[in-house]
From TrEMBL:
The keyword Oxidoreductase applies. This is Fe2OG dioxygenase domain-containing protein. GO terms for molecular function: metal ion binding; oxidoreductase activity. Transmembrane segments: none annotated. One of its GO terms (biological process) is antibiotic biosynthetic process. Belongs to the iron/ascorbate-dependent oxidoreductase family.
Length: 343
């Protein structure tokens, strides 16, 4: 049976949580991360009101006319509004969609800005300034609240993962103290002006996430699917109040795939040619632009070369070029083959 385990992380959320409870949590996380590579977390301490604020913000913005939303596009940058069919997630793996079409989701992306780290002189290419939609005045405050909450949970999870990997506390600190954090808020609905969903349009194509870990809030509307180790797709819906957490490519590289950057995709239900609207918000904890991701001590394979070292910025750049411009990245062959075999 395929299930995404539920882990209560409250002992890590509470300062000074009991060591034996934390050890149990770390064990459960290790099981989940070396198994499905997805976990549902409860006891995350985020207030219900922050989630309600986020969903209202999404509703307020996405209800705007397409022409208004398009005022907030930022071509070539991982910020602002992405209209339907402007991106292809499967191209981040180097897999062209079967029908050569882009994904039908629309998204709005915000993230950590270079101005937020005075004195560090960070490159604006990795830390672009945000665009906020003035046509949806409630959007910014609610999204900033969610961003802060998801950001704290991602740090707490990294502390738990550090224990789960048997590393000394703080092992990753110097790699995440000016992390590229990105929140991508997705809306899956019938693109404006289309009466019926035609052909084989994909909600969001198969991909792995690019960073360290992802904290994913998602509607309970079905649509998210996860690829298991045997090449079968499984539906995943979060339990009430749970957040989904999945690992990204940095974690897979650090552990030489003992922990997987699990391939996933999204196809919301279509009934009589109409999509059941679905929303999600993926918070990507990506690490410092200049952090070098290389196999952790004790994880290097004995019989073959592991992943070559790569900086966070170079990895993200290659993946985003696939997603936004259809330029296939090098070295994603293994996951690409698994996606093709699963069809
Ligand atoms: O919509 C979802 O549930 C998943 C979104 C996702 O995978 C992403 O934004 O990377
Ligand atoms: Fe994803």
């Amino acid at each position: 049976m395929f299930t995404v385990p539920i882990v209560d992380i409250s002992s890590y959320v509470a300062p000074g949580g009991a060591a034996d409870e934390r050890a149990l949590v770390a064990r459960s996380l290790d099981d989940a991360c070396s198994g499905v590579g997805f976990v549902q977390i409860v006891g995350h301490g985020i207030d219900r009101s922050a989630i309600d604020g986020l969903t209202s913000a999404l509703d307020e913005f996405y209800a705007l006319p397409l022409d208004t939303k398009k005022r907030y596009t930022r071509p070539g940058e991982n910020r602002g509004y992405s209209p339907p069919k402007s991106e292809s997630l499967s191209m981040s793996l180097g897999v062209a969609a079967a029908n050569q079409m882009n994904d039908f989701y629309e998204a709005f992306t915000v993230g950590s800005e270079w101005t937020g780290f005075p004195g560090l002189d960070l490159p604006a290419a990795s830390y672009p300034a945000n665009t906020w939609p003035d046509a949806a005045p409630g959007f910014r405050p609610a999204v900033e609240t969610w961003f802060g909450a998801a950001r704290s949970v991602s740090r707490i999870l990294l502390a738990a993962f550090t224990d789960a990997l048997g590393l000394e506390p703080g092992y990753f600190d110097a790699m995440v103290d000016h992390s590229i954090d990105v929140l991508k808020m997705n809306n899956y609905t019938l693109p404006e002006g289309e009466i019926e969903l035609t052909g084989e349009l994909t909600g969001m194509g198969a991909h792995t996430d690019f960073g360290i870990l992802t904290v994913l809030w998602a509607d309970q509307v079905p649509g998210l699917q996860v690829l298991d180790h045997e090449g079968r797709w499984h539906d995943v819906q979060p339990a009430d109040g749970a957040l989904l957490v999945n690992l990204g490519d940095a974690m897979a590289r650090w552990t030489d795939d003992r922990w997987r950057s699990t391939v996933h995709r999204v196809d919301p239900p279509v009934i009589d040619g109409r999509i059941i609207r679905r929303r999600s918000a993926a918070f990507f904890f990506d690490g410092n632009h200049d952090a070098v991701i290389q196999t952790l001590p004790g994880h290097a394979p004995a019989d073959r070369a592991g992943y070559p070292p790569i900086t966070v910025a170079d990895h993200l750049q290659a993946k985003l070029a696939g997603m936004k411009s259809g330029i296939a990245p090098d070295g994603a062959d293994r996951e690409a083959r698994r996606v093709l075999a699963a069809r």
